[in-house]
Amino acid sequence: MSKQQSNPRSGRKQAALAAQEVVAQPQAAAVQGGGALPQLLESSLARDIARAMMDGFNRHYRLFRQETARAKHRFETADWHGQQRGQRERIEFYDVRVRECVQRLEKEFRAGSQPMEVWHEAKLLYIGLLVGHFQPELAETFFNSVTTKILHRTYFQNSFLFVRPAISTEYIQIDEPSESTTFRCYYPRRDALEEVAAQMLEDCRLQRAFTDRARDVRRVAQALSAMLGDAKIRTNFQIQVLSSLFYRNKGAYLVGKLINGFDEMPICLPILHDERGGLYVDALLHTERDMHTLFSFSRAYFMVDMEIPSAYVQFLRSIMPRKPRNEIYNSLGLAKQGKNLFYRDFLSHLRSSTDKFRIAPGIKGMVMLVFDLPSFPYVFKLIKDYYPPQKETTREQIKGKYRLVKQHDRVGRMADTMEYSEVAFPRARFEDELIAEIQKFAPSQLEISDRDGDGNVEVILKHLYIERRMIPLNIYLQETFDAGEGDARAQRQMEHAVIEYGNAIKDLVAANIFPGDMLWKNFGVTRHGKVVFYDYDEIEYLTDCNFRKVPAPRNEEEEMSGEIWYSVARNDVFPETFGPFLLGNPRVRDIFMQHHGDLLEPQFWQQHKERIQQGHVYDVFPYDGSSRFADEGGAAPADAAANAAALAPPGGTAQSGNVPA
Ligand SMILES: Nc1ncnc2c1ncn2[C@@H]1O[C@H](COP(=O)(O)OP(=O)(O)OP(=O)(O)O)[C@@H](O)[C@H]1O
Predict the structure, then answer these.
(1) Residues that constitute the known binding site for ATP
(2) Separation of CA 583 and ligand 1 centre (Å)
(3) Atom of ligand 1 nearest to the CA of 471
(4) Where is the Isocitrate dehydrogenase kinase/phosphatase (AceK) kinase domain (predicted)?
(5) Torsion angle, CA of 336/337/343/346, rounded to 10 degrees?
(6) Could you tell me if 474 and 498 are in contact, meaning their C-beta atoms sit under 8 angstroms apart?
C-alpha cells in the first residue's frame, strides 16, 4: 500500500479503501479464530507515538488523582466551596490532556501524516505498554480520544483504536504488600461488632475528631446487628470496605459490604460535620436501593482516590448488580470511560435488537427534538435549528446550560447527560416519521449517507445528548387521573408524584438552581419513583433571578386587563403566577398547596437566594431522613438542621425529600 493511499487524512473514499486494505488480513484471520501476526516496521515512529500517548495518559491520571486526593483535606477542613470547585474543575481535565497529547503528536511526529501501518503498529505497541498497568481500560479510552482527533473516521475500527478492550481488568492488583489494597476486610465476632465498627472508623484516618466516637461506634454496631437479625453466623462472616472514602459536597462515605454465608449486603456510612465542627456518622445505609440513590445518574460525581479503578467498579457492581458499568464509572468521575462503555453497550444492543427509533412519547419539546428506541432505556436529544419566538435562545446558549448542569451539583434532581458528536445509526432502524421530524426541525444536524462506502446507509447526527429515559411526569400523572378516584393505588401514586415534584424543586433551590420552566412535562419519574428535572434550556442560577411579588393594580383598567400590565425585566420571576400553569387539577392543587404552597411565595425564593449569596452551601444528602440514626440529644447535624429550618414550610417540617429533617 502506498503511503499516499493510507494517509489518515486523505479523501473519504480513498481512505475507506485504504482502511479496508489494512484491516483485510486481521479480519480474515479473525474468522478463523485468531489474529494475524503484525509485520513490524523498522521505524521507531510507532514506538514513539505509543510512548507519547502513554505519557499523555499517565500525566492525565496523575493530575486527576492529585485533584481527587485533595478532597480528603477539603472535607477535613470543611472547605465546601473548594470541594465544589474541585468537583467542577476535575471534569475539564480530560479534554485538556487529550488536546495536549494531540498537539504533541502533531508537533513531534506529524502524526496526522503518518501511514496507517504506523498507526496499526502504534496500537499494538501501546497494548504492550499496558501490560502491568493499573488503569488499562482508561488508558485505552485515552488512546481512542487522541486517535479519533487525528485519524479520519473511516479508520475508527479495532485495528487502529480500541473499539473493543484489549487488556483484561480482572485481578489487577498491586504486588507491593506495603501499598494499600482496594478494600479492607474485617472479621467480627457477633458479640463484638463494636470493636470492628471502631476499627473501621479508625482506619479512615480522618484528620478531624469525631464529636462522640463512642456513640457513633455503638450506633453502627447496633445497625449492623439489626441487619444481621437472627441470621446464623457463617464461617465466612466478614465486612469488606473500600479503602478510599467517597467524597462529595459536604459528605464522606465509607462504602462496603457485609458477607455472611451466601448473603452479601451493601453497607455505607455517611460521615458528616455537625454544628460543633466535629465529625459524626449519620446513618448506616444497607439496601441496594440506598446504593442506587447514592450513586444515581442525577448526582454529582464522587471524588475517590483509586489506584485501580476497575477494582472499585467490580466491588461496586457486586453491591449494585443491576447498575450498568458505564454509570458506575461516571459516578466515580471517570466520565469518558462511562461514555465509551455506554457506546459499546449501545452498539451491542443495536446488533441484538430489531425495534426502531421513534419520536419519544410525551409533549414535543420546543427546542429539543427527542427520540428513543423502545427496547433501550435512554433518550436521544437533538437541539433544533428553529424555535418558537418565545424561546429567545441559541444553540450555543443551550449547550452552555447543559454544560452548567454537567458541572453543577445535580442533587439527585437533574439527569446527567452524555454528549456525542457525529453519531451514526443504521437508517433502516429509524421510523420515517422521525426522519421527517429531524429533516423539518434540525436539518443542519442530519446527514443520511453511506458514509463508509460499505453499502449501509446511515443516519449521522452531528451533535446529540443522551440521557436516562424516565416517565414524563405529565404522562405519569395522566395515568393516575385516568385510573379514576376510586383507584386507591393510583391516588397514592399521584400524591407521591406531586409531593416529589415539590421536593425536587426545593432540592434544586438548595443547589442554587432555578429550573425556569417548571411545567410537569419537564420532569420525569425514575425507576425508584424519584422526580428528576430534564429540561435545561431555561435554567438559571437562583442568585441571578429577581423574585418579585406581582404589583397591586393601580386602577380598574389594570385590574381587568388580561395582559401583563407591569414591566418585567429579563430575570424577573413571579412565583405567585406559577399556580395557574401547574394546578388546574383540584386534587393536585390540594396536595401541592398542603405540602409546597411556599413555592408560590416570593419570600421563599428570596430567602434562599440571600442565604446562598451569604456563602451558605446547602448539601442535599442522598438518603432520606428515615435512614438517619435517631438523635439522642447529641450534636445536631449542621447542614440538616439548617436545611430543615430553611426549607420547612411555615409552621411545618422540612418537606424536601432528601434534605434530612
Ligand atoms: N429523559 C427523558 N425521559 C423521557 N422522556 C423525555 C426525557 N427527556 C425529554 N423527554 C421527552 O421529550 C420532551 C421534550 O424534552 P425537553 O423538555 O428536554 O425539550 P425542550 O425543548 O427543552 O422542552 P420545552 O419546550 O419545555 O423547552 C419532554 O416533554 C418529554 O416528553
Answers:
(1) 360-366, 381
(2) 20
(3) 4
(4) 355-624
(5) -130
(6) no
Q: Is any ligand 1 atom within 6 A of the Cβ of residue 366?
A: yes
Distance 413 CA to ligand 1 centre (A): 15
Q: 251: which 3 cell numbers?
A: 459528605
Is any atom of ligand 1 closer than 6 Å to the C-beta of 370? yes
Q: What is the pLDDT of residue 5?
A: 37
Q: Which residue has the least CA distance to atom 2 on ligand 1? A: 469
Residues 130 and 193 in one domain: no
State the closest ligand 1 atom to the C-alpha of 532, by its place in the atom list counted from 1. Answer: 1
Same structural domain for residues 407 and 534?
A: no
Model pLDDT, residue 338: 96
Write down the pLDDT at residue 36: 61
Does 166 fall in a domain?
Answer: no
Looking at the fold, whether 260 and 366 belong to one and the same domain comes out as no
546-547 vs 572-573, strand pairing mode: parallel
516 lines ligand 1 (CB under 6 A): no
CATH classification at residue 461? 3.30.200
- Closest ligand 1 atom to the C-alpha of 522? 17
Whether 379 and 405 share a structural domain:
yes
Are 103 and 343 in contact by the 8 Å Cβ rule? The answer is no
Cell of 536: 435545561
Q: How far is the CA of 579 from the centre of ligand 1 (A)?
A: 21
Residue 575 and residue 500 share a domain: yes
Neighbours of 6 (CB within 10 A): 23
How high is the ipTM of this complex? 0.91
Range of the structural domain that residue 429 is part of: 353-469
Instruction: Check: CB of residue 640 under 8 Å from CB of residue 648.
Output: no
Smallest CA-to-CA distance from 125 within 44, 45, 47, 57 is with 47
DSSP string, 402-416: HHHHHHS--TTTB--
Residues 488 and 591 in one domain: yes
Mutate to test the pocket of ligand 1, among 385, 522, 532 (most ligand atoms within 8 A of CB): 522
**Predicted confidence (pLDDT) per residue in 234-269, tens digit:** 999 999 999 999 999 999 999 999 999 999 999 999
Same domain, 494 and 519: yes
User: Does residue 518 have its Cβ closer than 6 Å to ligand 1?
Assistant: no
Q: Is the CB of 472 under 6 A from ligand 1?
A: yes
Identify whether 357 is part of a domain. Answer: yes
Decide whether any atom of ligand 1 lies within 6 Å of the 425 Cβ: no
If one counts the domains in the chain, the total is 4
pTM: 0.87
Do 482 and 443 belong together in one domain? no
Tell me, yes or no, whether 645 lies in a domain.
Answer: no
Q: Tell me which residue of 409, 335, 330, 408 sits closest to 622, measured CA to CA.
A: 409
**Does 305 qualify as catalytic in the annotation?**
no
What separation in angstroms does the CA of 423 have from each of 155, 381, 435, 436? Answer: 15, 12, 15, 18
416 lines ligand 1 (CB under 6 A): no
In a domain, 220, yes or no: yes
Q: Give the ligand 1 atom nearest the CA of 468.
A: 1
pLDDT less than 50: residues of the chain: 1-6, 9-33, 632-661
Q: Whose CA is nearest to atom 20 of ligand 1?
A: 365
